């Protein structure tokens, strides 16, 4: 019976987990940041504690010296025997385990893991940026050339109106609400089963073209995406329009869809012999 009692008391399973777990604050000699509410089991060896702490601070167990401090920061002892259980040192909730990194070449020394000013930044010259295509600067210049009053806020409102199927208004006038024939012409040019790319770079297959109950009036395109970037499984408001896995389906306005030869992105890569992914 005594042997059975000792076995049960030493068990680290879920049954005794609450009683054998202690919540500690972890600090580090080279880091300003502290790790709050780290839960450790009192039955863990000091060596196991060091291995777990390595994942938080990066200091290998062989370079760790662990100090136990109380809530006021007073040193209570050093966890200097890797074979002993953590419970031997009687830590309590709210105590601190302070890690001293003894490696003089440690990456955490001298603020290298926290002081971003020490990291060399990539700086692109104005000439190099100007030579690039598809930058925001060139997009903005093109928009201002067409409309001197263009702003990013207006552009976002325009795209939102287009997504909802509203007719684009003249400057200073409210957007016209969609009706049953909104984007009918755009929808007529889209064939079910065609490969497509939706505005924003999402690719997939057209599975439905038509009106959708519960969504704003007008025409919609149901797309089965190649990746889980959608919002549904081909159904809307409880009615199914096509079949696909959850998260792979979406309904968008026809003006946001371009059909053509749009293979899945992973098929765009052409590996020569000897290449390895």
Return Rg in Å.
Answer: 31 Å
What is the average of the pLDDT values? 81
The strands making up the biggest β-sheet line up spatially as 2-1-5-3-4
> Could you name the ranges where pLDDT drops below 50 across 5 or more consecutive residues?
1-17, 267-277
CATH superfamily membership of the largest domain, which one? Answer: Phosphatidylinositol 3-kinase Catalytic Subunit, Chain A, domain 1
End-to-end separation in angstroms reads: 59 Å
Protein name: Tubulin folding cofactor B
Region (Disordered): 161-186
Domain CAP-Gly: 218-253
Family: Belongs to the TBCB family.
General description of the model:
- The chain is α+β, with helices and mostly antiparallel strands and 277 residues long.
- It has three domains: 2-111, Ubiquitin-like (UB roll) (Roll); 138-175, no CATH class; 184-265, SH3 type barrels.
- 22% of the residues lie in helices and 23% in strands.
- It contains seven helices and twelve strands.
- The strands form three sheets. The chain has a five-stranded mixed beta sheet. It has a five-stranded antiparallel beta sheet with strand order 11-8-7-6-12, with no helix packed on it. Strands 9-10 form a two-stranded antiparallel sheet.
- The protein is elongated and about 80 Å long.
- 19% of the residues are buried.
Keywords, please?
277 residues, Ubiquitin-like (UB roll), SH3 type barrels, 3 domains, five-stranded mixed beta sheet, five-stranded antiparallel beta sheet, 7 helices, 23% strand, disordered C terminus
Task: Note the topology.
Elements lengths: L1 H9 L3 H7 E8 L2 E11 L4 H12 L6 E6 L5 E4 L17 E6 L24 H5 L5 H11 L5 H12 L20 H5 L6 E4 L3 E9 L9 E6 L9 E2 L2 E2 L8 E4 L4 E3 L18
Parallel strand pairs: 1-5
Antiparallel strand pairs: 1-2, 3-4, 3-5, 6-7, 6-12, 7-8, 8-11, 9-10
């Amino acid at each position: 019976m005594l042997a059975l009692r000792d076995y049960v008391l030493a068990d680290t399973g879920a049954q005794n987990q609450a009683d054998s777990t202690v919540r500690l604050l972890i600090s580090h000699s080279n880091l300003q940041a502290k790790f709050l509410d780290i839960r450790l089991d009192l039955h863990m060896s000091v060596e196991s504690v060091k291995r777990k702490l390595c994942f938080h601070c990066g200091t290998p167990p062989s370079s760790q010296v662990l100090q136990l401090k109380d809530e006021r920061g007073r040193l209570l002892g050093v966890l200097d025997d890797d074979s002993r259980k953590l419970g031997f040192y009687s830590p309590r909730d709210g105590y601190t385990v302070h890690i001293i990194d003894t490696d003089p070449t440690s990456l955490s020394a001298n603020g290298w893991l926290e002081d971003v000013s020490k990291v060399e930044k990539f700086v692109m010259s104005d000439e190099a940026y100007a030579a690039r295509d598809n930058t925001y600067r060139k997009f903005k210049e093109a928009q201002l050339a067409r409309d001197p009053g263009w702003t990013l806020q207006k552009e976002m409102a325009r795209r939102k109106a287009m997504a909802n199927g509203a007719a684009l208004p003249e400057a200073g006038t409210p957007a016209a609400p969609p009706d049953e024939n909104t984007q009918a012409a755009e929808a007529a040019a889209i064939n079910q089963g065609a490969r497509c790319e939706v505005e924003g770079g999402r690719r997939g297959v057209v599975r439905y073209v038509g009106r959708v109950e519960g969504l704003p009036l007008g025409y919609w395109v149901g797309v089965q995406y190649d990746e889980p970037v959608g919002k549904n499984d081909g159904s809307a408001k409880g009615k199914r329009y096509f079949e696909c896995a959850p998260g792979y389906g979406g309904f968008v306005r026809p003006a946001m869809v371009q059909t053509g030869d749009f293979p899945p992105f992973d098929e765009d890569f052409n590996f020569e012999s000897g290449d390895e992914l």
